[in-house]
Amino acid sequence: MSYKIIEKRDLSPQIFLLKIVAPAVAHRAEPGQFIILRTDEYGERVPFTIADFDREQGTVTIIVQVAGKTTMDMQKLKSGDSVLDFAGPLGMPTPLENIKKAVVIGGGLGTAITYPQAKKLKSLGAEVTMIAGFKNKESIILSEELAAVSDKLIITTDDGSNGLKGFVTDRLKEELESGELFDEAIAVGPLLMMKAVCDLTKQYNLPTTVSMNPVMIDGTGMCGGCRVIVDGKPMFACVDGPDFDGHKIDWDIALKRQNALKSQEKRACEEGTCRIGRSNING
Amino acid sequence: MANMSNIKNPMPEQPADVRNRNFSEVTLGYSPETAIDEAQRCLNCKNRPCMNGCPVGVKIPEFISLVANGDFDGAYDKITETNSLPAICGRVCPQEKQCEAQCVRGIKGESVAIGRLERFVADYHLNHKQDVPQKRKSNGKKVAVIGSGPSGLTCAGDLSSMGYDVTIYEAFHTAGGVLMYGIPEFRLPKSIVQKEIEKLKDSGVKIETNVIIGKSFLLDELLDTMGYNAVYISTGAGLPQFLGIPGEALNGVYSANEFLTRINLMKGYRFPEYDTPVYCGKKVGVFGGGNVAMDAARCAKRMGADDVYIIYRRGMEELPARAEEIAHAKEEGIEFLLLKSPSEFVGDEKGNLTGVKVSDMKLGEPDASGRRRPEIIENSEHLIDIDTAIVAIGQSPNPLIRKTTEGLETTNRGCIVADEDGATSKPFVYAGGDAVTGAATVILAMGAGKKAAAAIHKKLTAQGETL
Predict the structure, then answer these.
(1) What are the pLDDT digits (tens) for B69-102?
(2) Which residues contact B309 (CB under 8 A, 6 or more apart)?
(3) Which CATH number is B101's domain given?
(4) Residues B225 and B280 reside in one and the same domain
(5) What domains, with CATH codes, occur in chain A?
(6) How far apart are CA A6 and CA A20, in angstroms?
(7) Is B179 part of a structural domain of the chain?
(8) Which of A84, A234, A264 minimises the CB distance to B242?
(9) For chain B, which residues lie within 8 Å of any Cβ of chain A, measuring from their own Cβ?
(10) Could you say which of B172, B238, B277 has the minimum Cβ distance to residue A268?
(11) A235 CB near a chain B CB, below 8 Å?
(12) Is the pTM of this model over 0.90?
């Protein structure tokens, strides 16, 4: 079994979009859920959050940032190529019902994950303020798509090369200070960004949902590698999440766990050989 | 003339100090001559006590007497009348608690080596015979099997041979369930599992990998919109239990499921040829005393650990693992730290595991399970240095189907409630194996698959007659 890529688009030098034919995944996919893919028989099982889906077409879109061996290999894939395995949808959908006014905060690649959430919020009639933060001008992605699903779009860059200069938390603080009354914040991005957002929203008693993306293997609750400490209790990001109440997460443990396996990933990148190209033989 | 030797023909195996550094199979199997010699130890008892010990009712004396006569093909046919996975059962069944425990030869000396003979016959067949796939005439009825472990494979095989159109749904990218992700290569070579699965596919069973029932499709969809007449749930016990002590989120603390899945299913022991890494330190503590604990400990040794400890709160007598696995583990240099119970994992400032605090235990009165209850000895807490911990204290059934299926009764421990035949609280839905019993053995799961297949056939036949 293999899953065909029908669209590959570079969004920035390090970020690209893949639209993949996977009807069994598209069938019940919802915003906030994820898939697990394996490029070929030697590959790792790697989770990616669903960035978009089309049930009629039977397609699922993921947005990928080059971060390690597998994503380096994936960057070389082209439209018409296939990946060997593509399973999902996994995890619980983001609870978006009954939200009237939301602030959605995306950082870097996390912005891609907030897109389907903002899209669904709009379709449910909510007012959406979107704050999207990037490193610099070159790394901005999905600005048109985000504009289409938000009432107010604020783009920031760390170096000020496009949009406002500063971090998403600076803009979020301005919004909150100005007296905007949101009933929910949704933050997706690097752990440190989500932690900073939560530290801020806690001061305003603004309920905040974050999306955790730890290392995992099966995605069905089997390995326990993705455990996150929430309210003092271990939860599995794959089946209990990936979304959690950001004010209850033990961020210190989450950050330390993220560092695990880092040296091995480095070794995989350095010693492992890229197999994309060869994969066309079996895929 | 029976062979009256009081001991089994020994199993050839790799030397312990060689095999504890490779992942090749530990035991090498009988030669035809040894198999015939061992088979001649069987007295062919009229009342066949050994068969009472077999959950799938293999006709043991009959197949053994065929082996004694050198008719290995005949012996294979005899075994497969009731057991579709003999190469697997011959390797992983706890024979000493089942068939061999009932063997008359075991009264004075060692029992007949029934497991080794079963394995010999199955391997001989796999190596010498090309199976001609026998596609049965379809009866036009569809059954979905959820999960492709031993229970699902057995149920699917039996239903397919009765003429059903069977599809197995598997969440992973490879079929085989615990046979692939749990049991290591050195105990059950994956090529053997895949050969058995290929045979099943050749006979007409369809396997859909990467489909998670409860997520991709709901169980109710299988019955309501996808045209299945019945469903068999054999999703196993995949949810790892943790110790629930402080420090369990430190880096270097694994569930046995994660450690074994990385190594077995993802072939992490061949990293970086395969992409999945396995971090395994130099001093490894494995918590638990079952087969999974033995497998994890022996894998850790092979991954290059200097010291591997089995840390178990009861004594040697109470270890639930198969006798052969305990013996092999000892030979390979695994240390058994018995009557010790962990209370806390400790780590450094980076969040990496550096040790475990344990207390000594003593055995008190028997508990509900009949085993003597371990009790803490006051003020005995001490620290053991470890940099990797593997928690192997048990698994519970996966909740994905339970959480997404209305009207499917489960116990407070998450096990699906099913009767003797596997029938659940939901019409046309059957369940068996670890999903019903909690973590048990391959052969019990297979037995449940067989019973459910027969019950599904009975139910669907009766339904057909009333239409």
Answers:
(1) 999 999 999 999 999 899 999 999 989 999 999 9
(2) B283, B284, B285, B286, B297, B334, B335, B336, B337, B384, B386
(3) 1.10.1060.10
(4) no
(5) 3-92 (2.40.30.10), 94-201 (3.40.50.80), 212-269 (no CATH)
(6) 6
(7) yes
(8) A234
(9) 171-173, 181, 209-212, 215-218, 238-240, 242, 248-252, 254-255, 257-258, 261-262, 265-267, 271-277, 279, 350-351, 398-400
(10) B277
(11) no
(12) yes
